[in-house]
Amino acid sequence: MIFITGTDTNVGKTYVSSILAKELSKKVKVGYLKPIETGGREDTLTLKKMLKNDDDLDLMNPINLKLPLSPNIAFDVENYQLTLDEIKRKILQSYNILKRKYEFLIVEGAGGVCVPIKDNFLMSDLIKLLNLDAVIVSRPNLGTINHTLLTIEHLRNKGINIRGVIINCMTDLNEVLHYEKTFETIEKFGNVEIIGIVKNNGDYDINFKKILK
Questions:
Q1: What is the chain's alpha carbon radius of gyration, rounded to the nearest angstrom?
Q2: Which of 3, 75, 173, 205 could connect to 132 by a Cys-Cys bridge, CB 3.0–4.6 Å?
């Protein structure tokens, strides 16, 4: 089981999750859970199509909000009636069903680790609630050192183990100035391993053993 989080929204968590689902399905029976999705169900539908499973969408994505907003804001403006405890129970119910059904479960967050869900409950608190290790999806461009190190620090302060970082390149990596030194800096100052690089041409090099361990 693994929780896929990222340094930001639209950093490529779903794309990386789909790669992991495709490759890991060759070895084990893989399921997918998107506890909270805002702005529709595009992420959940993408993984359902990839995995070709018969799971109900409400099981794969127990909390769905229509507007593309931070969950706490979407809950408020959509007048979502469930309390935080009820939201937690609904997510845990889906998680436990899917965990029993599959040998390996990919759980994908919404936004980054500090995104508020409801009240004072953050996305990182959800990772902690599910008792999962995290994989951080990051980008290679200027600014990623700060974003990635802050994400690492926050997760560790919450007592969450980090399996590693996967760099998702939305542009040609060769156009990123001295990207190797950026990656070295993340590994050195974050005391973390970059376990994968996903290139914008569709190629990827990921240590899947680190994901499955």
A1: 17
A2: 3
- Report the 10 Å Cβ neighbour count for 85: 11
Domains of the chain: 2-212 (3.40.50.300)
153 appears as a binding residue in the annotation: no
Rounded distance between C-alpha atoms, residue 93 and residue 143, angstroms: 38
- Which amino acid, 108? E
Residue pLDDT, tens place only, 152-206: 999 999 999 999 999 999 888 888 888 899 999 999 999 999 999 999 888 999 9
Residue 108 is labelled as binding a ligand = yes
Residue with tokens 């799971």: 55
Give every CB contact of residue 114 below 8 A, 6+ residues apart in sequence: 122, 123, 124, 154
Instruction: Find where tokens 């979407």 sit.
Output: 74
Q: For residue 163, what is the enclosing H or E element?
A: strand 162-168
Give the number of residues written for the chain: 213
11 is in an annotated binding site: yes
Among the listed residues 12, 54, 11, the one whose alpha carbon sits nearest the alpha carbon of residue 32: 54
Per the CB < 8 A criterion, the answer to whether 23 and 51 are in contact is: no
Task: Please check if 49 is assigned to a binding site.
Answer: no
What pTM did the predictor assign?
A: 0.95
**How many Å from the N-terminal Cα to the C-terminal Cα in the chain?**
9
Active-site residue numbers?
34
Does 110 appear as a known binding residue? Answer: yes
